[in-house]
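Morning - magnesium ion inputs below, output right after.
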Amino acid sequence: MEKILIFGHKNPDTDSICSSLVMADLEKKVRGDDAIKACRLGEINEETKYALNYFKVEAPELIENVEEGQPVILVDHNEFNQSVNGIEKAKIDTVIDHHRIDNFKTTEPVFYYAQPVGCTSTLLFELYTLNNITIEPKIAGLMLSAIISDTLLLKSPTTTIKDEKTLEQLAQIANVDIETYGLDMLKAGTNLDKYTEEELINLDAKRLDKDGMSYIIAQVNTVSIPDVLKRKEKLEEVINQKIKSENLSLFVFAITDIVNSNSEAIVLGNRTDLVGKTYKINNNIAVMPGVVSRKKQILPLIEKNL
Ligand code: MG
Ligand code: MG
Ligand code: MG
């Protein structure tokens, strides 16, 4: 039997990495075979590294292309432009996701499980319960790391009651203090000094395509926005290069203060008006008080202004 490969999205975040590992564990237990493999579509970021080290779990294998007919499971995304190369001709078996559905289609029936919750792992927790499968402590650790990451310790507006309740139960299984562990993990992800500007703008970047227009919303977490903005000039240079090489109409580089739950964004391209209609842009910077979520705050605002 052909191995089923599990993929999170490109420029993987903690949810994409942890949920693919968790899904592999679940599928092995449900389908009762070893024909499942967790994969990743890019480098592991510092925050995710912290979580994997803490719970002593190996990172998924880097696999960036699939052959025609390859059975795959997608977690934490569905849009083909965020997925593995060759996805158009792969056989999509299952999708577990918490994003809008777009740029997606299959030729065969598919198991599609989605809810507007804060994290893919919240849905995986439900699937363990539904299948009556016990969650091991380290698997609980991966799931709670993903929830803490996606909801910024339950502070993001994407957070639902379900995420909160799930996180509580997982913390008991994994035996960790949510606040202490969570802040340590998030802070590990704010160590941005080691990245070049090119790496920074790709670290957590999502490309969106709408009506023939392409744009990217990238996001980094920090404990000091001014610290990141010290590199503004060089960041603008690499963003402008990216706009040119990928023919983008807009690039939003959101710098999110995880302690105070605010963002400032470097906004460039010929459609900066899509942000500018809502937030005043000064010297290429939009100050966005209370904004922490790309999915619930930045993306809808751009689409609304389109
Ligand atoms: Mg994600
Ligand atoms: Mg997610
Ligand atoms: Mg994210």
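Note: The longest helix spans residues 14-31.

O.
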